[in-house]
Amino acid sequence: MALNPTEFMDCMTRRMVFSDADKASLNTNADWGLSIASDMADVFYGYMGKDEEMSAILNESEGRIHRLRETFVQWFYEMFTGMDSWGEAYADRRWRIGLIHVRIGIGPQHVVPAMAIVVREAGLRVTQEGKSEELRDALARVCMIDLAFIEQAYLEVTSAAVLKETGWSERLFRRMITTGAAAM
User: What is the three-class DSSP state of 118?
Assistant: First the structure.
C-alpha cells in the first residue's frame, strides 16, 4: 500500500481539476500569498488553540508552536509557487507533511476543520483585497489537494501498521474493511 507521492499528486490534480490556469493564477499572486501568510498563520493557530486537545498537541514541547507557525507560512507560500510546478518536490513535501501530522497526533477531526478555516479566510482575503474569483477557486483546489495528502497519510500509516502487526495480506485487509463497512 506504499504511496507514490508524485502519482498521488497527478491523480489529485486530475480529480480536483487543478488546471494550468489555476497554477498561473497562484504563481502570479505568489508575492501576495507570502504577504498574507503570517496573518493566515495567526488565524489558523488562533482557531486551533481554542480546541483543548489541539492546544495540548501544539504546545507539547518548548518552541513547537513557533516552529509550526514558521512551517505554516512556508507551506502557505508554497501553494502559490508550486515549488517545482506542483511536481515531484511539491508532492514529496506534501507527503512528508501528512506523515508529520500522523506522527505528532493531529487527527483528521482536527485537520479537516482547520483546512476549512484556511480556505474560508484566504477566500475572504481574496475578496477583501479585490483579487480574482479564479484565484480564490485555485487556492481552494490546491488546499484540497494538500488535505488529501494529509488524509491519505492516515490511511497509509494505519494500513501498514495493521498489516505488519497481523501479517494479513493487503487483499484480506481490504475485504475486511469492505465487509465491516457493509455491516454498519
Answer: helix
Structure-block grid coordinates of residue 39: 496573518
Contact 146, 79 (CB under 8 A): yes
Separation between Cα atoms, residue 129 and residue 123, nearest integer Å: 10
Q: How far apart are CA 120 and CA 110, in angstroms?
A: 16
| Largest distance between two CA atoms of the chain | 56
Residue 115 C-beta-side C-alpha neighbours within 13 Å: 22
Contact 141, 17 (CB under 8 A): yes
Q: Do 98 and 149 meet the contact criterion of CB atoms below 8 Å apart?
A: yes
Are 152 and 101 contacting, i.e. CB atoms less than 8 angstroms apart?
A: no
Q: Fill in the DSSP letter of residue 131.
A: -
Inform me whether the pLDDT recorded for 1 exceeds 70.
no
Distances (CA, A) of 37 to 45, 86, 115, 162: 12, 19, 14, 38
93 confidence band (pLDDT: 50, 70, 90): very high
Query: 142: which DSSP letter?
Result: H
Output the nine-digit C-alpha cell for 171.
487483499
Residue pair 89/39 in contact by the 8 Å Cβ criterion: no
* DSSP label of 60: S
SS3 at position 40:
helix
Predicted TM-score (pTM) of the model is: 0.90
